[in-house]
Amino acid sequence: MIKTDASVSRGWLNREAGFTFPGEYYFDSGKRLETDSAVRQYLMKRFGSDRPGFRESNLVQPEFEQPGDRLIGGIQPNLILGMLLGAELTAPPHLDPDLDRIPLEGTPDTADLPDPESLTDHPLIKQWTEELKRAGESGLPVIPPFFWDRSGRATIHGIVTTSLKLAGEGVMLDFVLQPEKVLAFHDWITRAWIVLIRHFADLVSFPVTALHVGECSGTMVSESDYRQFILPYLSRLSEEIAPLRLHHCGNCDHLLPAIAEIPRLAVLDTGSGASVAKIREILGADREIHIAPPVEMLLEGASEEALAAWCRQTEEENRKGPMMIAMHIEPGYSLDLCLKVLNRSFSGT
Predict the structure, then answer these.
(1) Which of 6, 16, 65, 101 is the most exposed place for a label (fewest CB within 10 A)?
(2) CA distance 326 to 290
(3) What is residue 338's three-state secondary structure?
(4) Interval 144-159: pLDDT, tens
């Protein structure tokens, strides 16, 4: 069975309707709710009920989304960790936010990093903690940091994706030059995620039902490096937190034997270059797959026939297993093509 989903990006909303997302959007939950409500009204008016949603790059599950929910600390996970290490959030009003700098230069000595347990004492975490407590006392429906809807699915960035964000591209060189240092850093990142997720889940009594891990950069490494620098930490997160929804950008075919060893892997969310047939061969017929169409097939001026052929091939290779085709619509995408995929309006799909 194949489901479809689509969300629109902040850049698309800015271009199409002039919405802006300044810094206060991320730190004032009331103003964020006002903006998000206006966006939902705009999408409903433009598309009707079968519309693309406004979701954080396919992280929100529509069936668990409530319009009145307040997102407190609704910021991408590795940006939060970067702020805890001294960076500042930059928020161009027409784009997604980012960090103003790489907070750590080069693979750090973990002795120079704060104890992960102490991160909950950071002023930003304390600010969100107090806001959540006040909201709870007032009966306001809230979603805490590291969560995006009421499902209880926590979200983090993956291990190497986070280490690259925090320390820069030199981490890759240190796979060879200083592997023990990298492993220690990856262990610190893993412990930090566990501490932060448990803090906010316990604070609002959220049962952690699943864990989305956005290991976007994972496909940049070899299978042997994946096994050494990523797999042990993904396995630990799966065992200590919850079953994983694992995201990799692009083609992860070469990593599938290692991915298959992750305990409690529930969903593989992968880029369009991956072979659905190979995923089914290695991970089995019942594992849920989430996949995105190739970006070049969604751009304005792209071939409808090529996109329809990709959808048919994907469905054939899926062999009737659980699957979702999802898109995050950016400026430059063909809205018509995206809607055809969302509504499965190609013949034969």
Answers:
(1) 101
(2) 7
(3) helix
(4) 999 999 999 999 999 9
Instruction: Give me the phi and psi of 71, to 5 degrees please.
Output: -90, 115
For residue 347, the tally of other CB atoms under 10 A from its CB is 6
As given in the structure block, the two tokens for residue 326 are 């999802």
Coil, strand or helix: which one is 3? strand
Please indicate, yes or no, if residue 140 is contained in any of the structural domains: yes
Does 348 reside within a domain? no
**What's this model's pTM, rounded to 2 decimal places?**
0.95
Tens-place pLDDT, residues 183-238: 999 999 999 999 999 999 999 999 999 999 999 999 999 999 999 999 999 999 99
Residue 156 contacts residue 190 (beta carbons within 8 Å): no
Question: Is residue 291 assigned to a domain?
Answer: yes
CA distance 255 to 215: 12
3-state secondary structure of 44: helix
Q: Domain range holding 212?
A: 2-342
CATH assignment at residue 173? 3.20.20.210
- Three-state DSSP state, 26: helix
Residue 219 belongs to a domain? yes
DSSP 346: S
